[in-house]
Hints:
Layout (H helix, E strand, L loop, with lengths): L15 E5 L6 E4 L7 E2 L5 E4 L3 H5 L1 H9 L4 E5 L16 H10 L5 E4 L5 H9 L4 E5 L13 H11 L3 E4 L21 E3 L1 H15 L5 E5 L4 H12 L4 E4 L1 H5 L9 E3 L3 E3 L5 E4 L1 H12 L3 E5 L12 H11 L5 E5 L1 H13 L7 E2 L4 H7 L5 H4 L5
Parallel strand pairs: 1-5, 1-8, 5-7, 6-7, 8-9, 10-11, 10-15, 11-12, 15-16, 16-17
Antiparallel strand pairs: 2-4, 3-4, 13-14
Amino acid sequence: MFTKQTVRDVDVKGRTVLVRADYNVPLEAVVAGEGVEGVADTGEAVRITSDLRIRAGLPTLQYLLEHEVGKIIIISHLGRPTGERDPKLSLRIVAEKLAELLPGTPVNFVDEVSGPEVEIAAESLPEGGILLLENLRFSPEEKANSADFAREIVDATGAELFVQDGFAVVHRAHASTSAITQILPSVAGLLLEKEVNALNEVITEPERPFVVIIGGVKVEDKQPLIKQFSGLADQILVGGKIAADGYQAENDQIYVAEDFDINEAGEKLDIGPVSTMHMVEAIQNAKTVLWNGVLGKVEDPAYATASTIIAKTMGENRALDSIVCGGDTSGFVEGLKMTDSDLDYTLVSTGGGAALKLLLGQELPGIEGLEDK
């Protein structure tokens, strides 16, 4: 059960609400002048390749609008700027996409996060309108968890309530996740509540048989997760590079991929058909499946076979409680969903590091600071 207050527990009518969203969407550079969504000042064009994270946060925004919120101010980050403004990492393109997804709702953008320009933009925003501020990480004070920076945002926007809805960032103690909660009454958004509840459920009361699939690259990152679920899952299936590099199972409950798809250089870049079918059979017999970590070098379609088969086996089974988490895994599954609308999952998590820390029972600063129920 989610123990923090959410937007459902507070009165938002007529109030200016500051929402921390996760709009760290994947982008790709394209040839300018071809009708793309945004063109940087350098003349380069960028396009959003998946709007999963924008769409995932829509229920919170729609709830606020339906309950007659005064104004919605959204803050987020995009990419990993090096401390200077990078026009290719501006959130303007996200504001344009958000306006498409919320027709009839005014969606404005301002290329600052505090100061006079934000004050003017917030004051001129119509009731029931949305204002997206510029990339938080253009300011080093964000990652420094600066209370002064958080106060500047609050003062410029006139915010009266803070809503944390960026699950992917709640494991970080930044100004927009931690310091801000010391300034404003703070509650969770609907996406944050949904993700935490779904992940907590697989820890506390999964419907059995419960199968965990672990892939990815670094065994040091995955070993704690394997250990955590050794006493919780009915079966753990290990693939990906950690299996290819010779990971050894500690007990019979853990199955490690036994065959691989190998390139001409002798590199094991995907698990093979025997291992894939073993995992498929385990999924077909399961009631709950948690998948963290792709099973091959999925950026090369030739080595995405096993991950594709596993994703489709999970997504086509409507009776399965299916949880997909981890940045690469969620991104891969979302890419498949864009071309196969029949795929459906209980949760495709927007959080990589946050999901991992929650599953390991570690503290999440962005949740700890919210109001208790």
